[in-house]
Amino acid sequence: MRRTLLGLAGTVALLLGLTAPALAFEPVNVVHTEKVQAGPYDLTIGFSTWPVKAMQSLDFTFAPEDGITGKTGTLTMFYNGAEDDDGPLARHPRKREVWGLDIHAMPAPGTWTMRFDINGPAGAGTGELKNLQVMEQPGPPMGLSWAISTIPLFGLIALIVIAWRRTRATVD
Amino acid sequence: MTAHITATAASSPVTRTVPRGLIPASVVLGGTLISLIGLTWDIQWHSDVGPDTFFTLPHLFLYAGSAISGLASLAVVLLTTANSKRDKEVDPVVGGRAVGVFGRTFAAPVGYLVSGIGAALFLVYGLWDQWWHGLYGFDAVIDSPPHIGLLLSISITMVGAVMIFAVARDQNWGTYGVAGAAATLLAFSMVTVLGLRALPGGLVNTVNAGSAFFSVMILFMGAYVLKRRGGALAVGVVVAALQALFWWFSPWATEVYADATGLPLRDYADGIPGLPNMIPMSLILVAVAVELLHKLPAWLVGAVGGVIITACAPLQRMFVYGSNFPAIDRFLATVVAGAVLGALAGMLGRRFGHMLRHLAPAKDNSHA
């Protein structure tokens, strides 16, 4: 219990002491790029980690060669050939000069396709990044991770079982 | 008037102005509310702004909430231990009967023991979450296993808060506290149920069915521990008040904090309040149904509640997001699951309410 107290006191001190300097956000570091030709637009796809692994989050950047000004577009993801998700191309929150997805994780291993539909001064164009291979997730199997994470739930159920057995009579 | 008050005070100098147990109970409840504020703010931050560190203000609220509840719980346990070792009387209205921890090293009132264990678990799961982020990146996924572990830990503190106030249910502050603590637990649990997305549900929308189960169960629990007309409605009204308050607060605080840190809002940020929209707006209907149908068996009223919540969930999505009505087979399967789980939740909530009534010291029950 004293350790808990010390731990809590330490936490409070850390919270109060380190807040201001720690609010510096990580820059977007592109370590791998792929090229996509979407009609008249040359698009560079940037990845902040490579290779991509399932459930491991990374920054994606989507940069037309002559910038995003005056352009709009849609990104559609396909998983093993079937449409999975789509949305408008939005500026990356930490790299506002390009479009992107911030700390985004591909949910499952396999073959993914990213389709870009872009409208701009040179007209409309569509291009695809095909065969994006997403590797198996890192770390322990999800079953084990869930087992560890739901221990509080099972503890609560145990408490309820004990309380249930001790409180058979109704209290008015 | 002044003279009168002075005279009264002078004639009874030993009158307690604050009921015994109210202050630590309020601190624990306040801590859980700070956790809830941190959670609604953090969810909104991720959806509307994005950039994240360990020390964003919403995160600090989350850590501080558990720290405040945990320290208050620890203080009560240490004081109770000290009193018990000196053979001083330990009033069970403060958190319930004291139980031995580590043999008889500590004497811990059971409500504060549970709230304190929740706060301690929060620290442990914080480390698990740090390790997870090191491996998987700084993902903003609310339903990752460590995040669900953290949310469950906070929920245990919230269960402890309900227990602490349930002990004092014969006093006004206990009654109001039960409604407040149960409503806080209910609102918070609507985020924890997102973990059910990991379950294969077939046609059933597991999150909607889970929301129905937990909201019906907690509503019944509050109603049966208070065991008075209006108990369910009180919990429902507090949940609705929290929902309304956070509907305004979450986007507002997010924008203010983004301005203060010089960060822009995301392109296409819709500003729709994330956490408040996870709370079923139909809950107030369920609360009214529980009040009106109180003579029917709990399982039947629970099933009605489960049906109301699962049937209205797509309507809420259509109203807020303008989304389409789901496929009819998926809708019907989810409503059937809502009925079955609602019936179970009604029975469990009723039983949990009775269990919580056992925590109170045996004496007259003025509200019974």
UniProtKB/TrEMBL annotation, chain A:
Transmembrane segments: 143-164
Signal peptide as annotated in the record: 1-24
Name of the protein in its database record: CopC domain-containing protein
Keywords carried by this UniProt record: Membrane, Signal, Transmembrane, Transmembrane helix
Species whose genome carries this gene: Lentzea pudingi
Upper taxonomic lineage: Bacteria, Bacillati, Actinomycetota, Actinomycetes, Pseudonocardiales
UniProtKB/TrEMBL annotation, chain B:
UniProt keyword list: Membrane, Transmembrane, Transmembrane helix
Magnesium in keyword set: no
Domain of life: Bacteria
Keyword match Transmembrane: yes
TM ranges: 21-41, 61-79, 106-128, 148-168, 175-196, 208-226, 233-254, 274-293, 300-319, 331-349
Protein name: Uncharacterized protein
